[in-house]
Predict the 3D structure of the following.
Amino acid sequence: MPDGATREDASQAVTALYEAHAVGLIRLAVIMLGDRAAAEDVVQEAFCGLYRRWGQLDEPGKAQSYVRAATLNGCRSQLRQRIRAQRRGGPAPDSADAASAEQAALLGEEHQLVLRALRRLPDRQREALVLRFYLDQTEPEIAATMGISRGTVKSTTSRGLAALGRLIQEESQR
Amino acid sequence: MSPVMSTEARLRAATRAAADTVAPGSAPPLRLPGDPAAGPLPGFYLDQTEPEIAATMGISRGTVKSTTSRALAALGRLLQEAGR
């Protein structure tokens, strides 16, 4: 947590970054989660994390990749919580209900089908596919964002696409 | 939807459509964590709801929930100890 005089500077800098990038990151989180409120929470938390670490970032350019990585992490733990809740057989967390209701209202059946399948993929495959085909990142960029090698990006993306095709088929037969 | 449409094309279209549900300029204001010296958890004596506490403290709703339940459990243990 920044303190004293640096707190004001940090808060201004982080707020400016938020204003420039929040919508883009909320969009990314909505793709991952299908739930606007949960997406906003994840992004809010990512920027609070940036604020807490502000003095420790060696270059300001890293701030943007920090919040993107923190957003992806936040989405991963949200999805994991949903799966755990489903396994316990308890009621689905509000966010999962909200997700289906929201998507049903805003998106057609075809898109919902694809997004449901996407959310069933392993974390790394889902993230690699979204970075590649939604954010149009190159393989080296994806490698940097995810902290994996370029070779792993290539194989994860192609396995992910094949698995997504199978899950889409499954979802369409439900 | 054409049956020959590739998985990649379907993924591109679906992610774009989901992203488009978030309008430009529609992000809520950022709430940064306040001064830790600002005071205790405002939930119970102010009877705030979880979203209100989240906004007041600049933390997520999930964090409000977990912090509140951990604090209540800890308070229970401390009351027990104090009663001995």
